[in-house]
Design goal:
This protein is an alpha+beta fold and 136 residues long. Helices cover 29% and strands 32% of the residues. The protein is built from four helices and five strands. A five-stranded antiparallel beta sheet has the order 1-3-4-5-2. The longest helix has 17 residues. The N and C termini lie close together (9 Å). The relative contact order is 0.20.
Length: 136
């Protein structure tokens, strides 16, 4: 899935370059959009008592972006084995140059904060993520 983000002025630093922390925000925006596209938006998950915190983030900055640049975030499932979800992100500018490559890892917890096994508790969601891991 491609998520499109336009760099905002407030996302840049004094030098006019996008601050590095914003790429992680765009990853989160893209992940939320991805889950909504596959039918499992955060409202649905939270209504079922499921949260999905970030466990780790890895970011490699390749090229700078500046105010009003359009960044296309190609987001997909890198790996999913039932407990942890690993997402991958390839960010490109409008010229097609890679500006950032990243990964994030997430788990799924119930309302008490205990890990859940999606295969048992949300088998439909498990199947979607498993299938995506094979094709993304």
């Amino acid at each position: 899935m491609i998520y499109k983000h336009t760099v905002q002025y407030y996302e840049t630093d004094k030098m006019g370059i996008t601050h590095h922390s914003n790429y992680v925000r765009w990853m989160e925006e893209a992940r939320v959009a991805y889950l909504a596209e596959v039918g499992w938006d955060f409202a649905r998950l939270e209504s079922l008592g499921v949260v999905s915190p970030v466990v780790s983030v890895s970011v490699q900055y390749k090229q700078t972006t500046t105010f009003s640049d359009v960044v296309m975030v190609d987001v997909g499932v890198d790996e999913f084995k039932g407990v942890k979800l690993k997402m991958k992100y390839l960010m490109k500018n409008e010229q097609g140059d890679i500006v950032c490559e990243a990964r994030s890892e997430h788990c799924f917890l119930n309302s008490e904060g205990a890990p859940i096994r999606l295969k048992k508790e949300l088998p439909e969601f498990f199947e979607i993520l498993s299938s995506a891991a094979e094709t993304d």
